[in-house]
Model the fold of this input.
Amino acid sequence: MLDIASDLRRWLSSGERIALATVVATRRSAPRPIGAKLGVSEGGELAGSVSGGCVENEVFGLAQERLRGGKPVLASYGISDELGLSVGLPCGGEIDVFVDEYEQPLIERLLQASEREEPAVLFHAVAGDRLGSKLLVFEDGETLGDGFGEPPVGVDGLLRGGRSVLVEDGAVFCDVFGRRPRLVVFGAVDTAEHLCRAAGALGWRTTVVDARAKLATPERIPSADELMVEWPERALEQIKPDHATSIVVLTHEDRFDIPALKGALESDAFYVGAIGSRRNQERRREHLLAEGLGEEALDRISGPSGLDIGASTPAEMSVSILAEILSVRAGRDGGRLKTARGRIHAES
Done:
């Protein structure tokens, strides 16, 4: 929503009605992910994209029909579709796009939630008797809309999964609005700067923690969104890592490593990594066992952190580490696409 927020607000301020087209499903290679949106104003303006230009003109027509009083529409596009010659996708994929009008209070609340990173799920009936019904449910229990008596699926599970999905045999689209993924790095070293720069380019929030004030400076780590001069325990109390948080330990000192890893493993962080030799990993493991952590918890540590790409410089190490973080987040092994047999793109 944030990528088209300025256009949506401008249309709302001028009193225009708005339709949104949303990608609710993809098959094979698709140009835009599930959840991608195209906004269409009553005056005929467009913002955003559902296919990178392949089917926008067709979807625009459906949105205009909806704003003139037509019903919500679920449309499929792809090479195998009967419209393939005129609006098919050149990549050979297929997408399902749902087009509906969104009322002003709902759009305003969605924009507010996106800007504040308030986790929420919009349940939207895309087929069946409840076609067009909407219910927005927030993590804290706040709701907007009365299209459903109860959410058809648990909100907590959807937010933890972080992916928008179709449920009830494709009749309801669960549009997930979560927090931006967060990368927390312990150790204000060269690799931390490269990690923050790369993660920032992905739109992630980045935090670097180090108790050594001379190292944790904006001059050394200019790409971090946040620098914390704190010991690991205090920093983790303030950060409160959740299921959208990845943690990487780069410090190489037990006084930092052990409390950082212990606190990370006791949190909901989806990724916990630590650099260091295999010998050092085993030694650190013994220390963490002595701290009361179990084998199952310790198996969560990715150490040495990163994928096996032969990285040697800090910049190369950051690519290796971030690639592993992305693969874990997507539930992938991180192997070569050439030998993979599944979908190229994660269903996100």
The chain has a mean pLDDT of 91. Residues 233 and 315 are 28 Å apart (CA to CA). The first strand starts at residue 18 and ends at 27. DSSP finds eleven helices and 16 strands in the chain.
